[in-house]
Structure formats: C-alpha cells, structure tokens
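A protein record pairs a chain with a discrete description of its three-dimensional fold. The following entry can be read in just this way.
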Amino acid sequence: MPESQHTVVVMTRAGCSACERAEQDVERICGELGVAWSTADVDTDPEWRAEYGDRVPVILVDDVEHGYWSVDEDRLRAALSE
C-alpha cells in the first residue's frame, strides 16, 4: 500500500505554547503514519487570522478543519487511516 495521500496543516501563531504542543503531537503522529504535514502562521495572512486566529492551534486535514486548541490523537489517527 502506498503512503497516505493525506496532508495535515497546523495553523499556528508565534509564542503560542499550545501550538508548540500541537506541532509536536502532529509531528509524532504523522511521522508514524507517513503523512505529510506542515505549519502555517495565521498572522501572516489576514484571512487566516480572521478565520482561525481565536482558535489556534487549528488542525486541518486535507484542507478541512479537523480540530482546534489541542490534538485529539485517536480522532486524528482515525482520519488519517481512512
């Protein structure tokens, strides 16, 4: 079976400790599952800031909002295993 075609983006903000924890969780989970992931700073884009700024970190799976404030590991693993 080929590696997952899913992508994960963690919408973050500089100086956000919850964002740092979410990035560590996503890095570990995606690493184990072979899923590409990245981060994006909400403060670099006015639309992102308006959409996600009060809920960072926000986790996007395949460009769809999956969760925010923290990583629900079981739920993320389930979404990436589909």
